[in-house]
Amino acid sequence: MSTSLSGGCACGAIRYESTATPLISWTCHCRDCQRASGGAYCPVIYIPQAALIITGESRYYEVQAASGRSINRGFCGKCGSPVFVKPAVWPDALGVWAGSLDDPSRYQPVADIWTASAQPWDTLTSLGRKFAQGPTEEFLDEFHLPRG
Fold it and tell me: I need a surface site. Which of 8, 9, 79, 81 has the fewest CB within 10 A?
Protein backbone atom coordinates (compact mmCIF):
# COMPACT_ATOMS: atom_id res chain seq x y z
CA MET A 1 0.00 0.00 0.00
CA SER A 2 1.24 3.49 -0.85
CA THR A 3 2.14 5.79 2.03
CA SER A 4 1.24 8.94 0.11
CA LEU A 5 -1.62 10.96 1.54
CA SER A 6 -3.25 14.09 0.21
CA GLY A 7 -6.21 16.19 1.13
CA GLY A 8 -7.48 19.60 2.03
CA CYS A 9 -10.45 21.66 3.08
CA ALA A 10 -13.89 21.68 1.46
CA CYS A 11 -13.31 24.82 -0.63
CA GLY A 12 -9.78 23.88 -1.77
CA ALA A 13 -8.06 26.90 -0.22
CA ILE A 14 -5.88 24.53 1.85
CA ARG A 15 -4.19 21.49 0.33
CA TYR A 16 -1.59 19.10 1.74
CA GLU A 17 0.35 16.06 0.67
CA SER A 18 2.87 13.70 2.20
CA THR A 19 4.74 10.60 1.14
CA ALA A 20 5.95 9.82 4.67
CA THR A 21 4.65 6.85 6.58
CA PRO A 22 2.05 8.09 9.10
CA LEU A 23 3.21 7.96 12.71
CA ILE A 24 -0.10 6.80 14.18
CA SER A 25 -3.86 7.05 13.60
CA TRP A 26 -6.59 7.01 16.20
CA THR A 27 -10.08 8.07 17.06
CA CYS A 28 -10.39 10.49 19.97
CA HIS A 29 -13.70 10.61 21.87
CA CYS A 30 -12.87 13.43 24.32
CA ARG A 31 -15.41 16.23 24.75
CA ASP A 32 -13.10 18.73 23.08
CA CYS A 33 -12.88 16.59 19.95
CA GLN A 34 -16.65 16.12 20.00
CA ARG A 35 -17.12 19.88 20.07
CA ALA A 36 -14.47 20.48 17.40
CA SER A 37 -15.96 17.88 15.06
CA GLY A 38 -19.62 18.55 15.78
CA GLY A 39 -19.96 14.80 16.15
CA ALA A 40 -18.91 11.85 18.27
CA TYR A 41 -15.14 11.92 17.80
CA CYS A 42 -12.06 13.14 15.94
CA PRO A 43 -10.51 10.64 13.51
CA VAL A 44 -6.91 11.79 13.05
CA ILE A 45 -3.71 10.63 11.34
CA TYR A 46 -0.41 12.02 12.65
CA ILE A 47 2.33 12.67 10.09
CA PRO A 48 5.89 14.00 10.53
CA GLN A 49 5.40 17.75 10.06
CA ALA A 50 8.60 18.08 8.00
CA ALA A 51 7.17 15.60 5.47
CA LEU A 52 4.01 17.61 4.78
CA ILE A 53 3.76 20.02 1.89
CA ILE A 54 0.98 22.47 2.64
CA THR A 55 -0.47 25.15 0.38
CA GLY A 56 -2.87 27.76 1.67
CA GLU A 57 -3.17 29.17 5.17
CA SER A 58 -4.81 27.61 8.18
CA ARG A 59 -6.18 29.51 11.10
CA TYR A 60 -5.53 27.93 14.48
CA TYR A 61 -7.48 27.83 17.69
CA GLU A 62 -5.65 26.72 20.86
CA VAL A 63 -7.42 24.73 23.55
CA GLN A 64 -6.35 22.84 26.63
CA ALA A 65 -6.96 19.15 26.01
CA ALA A 66 -8.39 16.77 28.59
CA SER A 67 -4.79 15.65 29.20
CA GLY A 68 -3.97 19.17 30.41
CA ARG A 69 -1.68 19.84 27.43
CA SER A 70 -2.41 22.41 24.77
CA ILE A 71 -3.57 21.49 21.30
CA ASN A 72 -4.02 23.73 18.28
CA ARG A 73 -6.82 22.95 15.86
CA GLY A 74 -6.22 24.14 12.31
CA PHE A 75 -9.13 25.04 10.08
CA CYS A 76 -9.78 26.87 6.84
CA GLY A 77 -10.59 30.54 7.39
CA LYS A 78 -12.75 30.56 4.25
CA CYS A 79 -14.95 27.46 4.60
CA GLY A 80 -14.34 26.50 8.26
CA SER A 81 -13.33 22.90 7.53
CA PRO A 82 -11.21 21.28 10.25
CA VAL A 83 -7.96 20.13 8.65
CA PHE A 84 -5.04 19.98 11.12
CA VAL A 85 -4.30 19.14 14.75
CA LYS A 86 -1.06 20.35 16.40
CA PRO A 87 -0.52 18.63 19.75
CA ALA A 88 1.97 20.22 22.14
CA VAL A 89 3.15 16.73 23.14
CA TRP A 90 4.43 16.05 19.58
CA PRO A 91 5.94 19.28 18.26
CA ASP A 92 7.33 17.54 15.16
CA ALA A 93 4.03 15.94 14.15
CA LEU A 94 0.90 17.33 12.57
CA GLY A 95 -2.43 15.55 12.63
CA VAL A 96 -4.76 15.60 9.65
CA TRP A 97 -8.47 14.94 10.06
CA ALA A 98 -9.45 11.76 8.24
CA GLY A 99 -12.40 13.56 6.65
CA SER A 100 -9.98 16.00 4.99
CA LEU A 101 -8.21 13.20 3.08
CA ASP A 102 -8.85 12.89 -0.64
CA ASP A 103 -9.38 9.19 0.08
CA PRO A 104 -10.76 8.92 3.64
CA SER A 105 -10.80 5.12 3.38
CA ARG A 106 -7.02 5.30 3.94
CA TYR A 107 -7.71 6.05 7.61
CA GLN A 108 -6.78 2.96 9.65
CA PRO A 109 -7.09 3.71 13.39
CA VAL A 110 -4.99 1.66 15.80
CA ALA A 111 -6.83 2.85 18.90
CA ASP A 112 -9.83 4.63 20.37
CA ILE A 113 -8.80 7.11 23.07
CA TRP A 114 -10.79 8.92 25.76
CA THR A 115 -13.52 6.30 25.44
CA ALA A 116 -14.79 7.24 28.92
CA SER A 117 -16.16 10.37 27.22
CA ALA A 118 -17.72 8.50 24.28
CA GLN A 119 -21.39 9.21 23.80
CA PRO A 120 -23.84 6.36 24.45
CA TRP A 121 -25.09 6.66 20.86
CA ASP A 122 -21.54 6.27 19.48
CA THR A 123 -20.50 2.83 18.28
CA LEU A 124 -16.81 2.10 18.89
CA THR A 125 -16.08 0.15 15.73
CA SER A 126 -12.29 0.43 15.56
CA LEU A 127 -10.56 -2.91 15.93
CA GLY A 128 -7.68 -1.18 17.73
CA ARG A 129 -6.97 -0.86 21.41
CA LYS A 130 -9.31 1.10 23.67
CA PHE A 131 -8.17 3.61 26.30
CA ALA A 132 -10.58 5.16 28.80
CA GLN A 133 -8.38 8.26 28.77
CA GLY A 134 -5.28 9.12 26.75
CA PRO A 135 -3.02 6.39 25.42
CA THR A 136 -0.41 5.02 27.81
CA GLU A 137 3.27 5.88 27.47
CA GLU A 138 3.98 2.20 26.81
CA PHE A 139 1.51 2.18 23.92
CA LEU A 140 3.05 5.32 22.43
CA ASP A 141 6.54 3.82 22.80
CA GLU A 142 5.45 0.94 20.55
CA PHE A 143 5.20 3.48 17.73
CA HIS A 144 8.49 5.27 18.53
CA LEU A 145 6.77 8.63 18.59
CA PRO A 146 9.03 11.60 19.27
CA ARG A 147 7.57 13.53 22.19
CA GLY A 148 8.28 17.01 23.47
Answer: 79
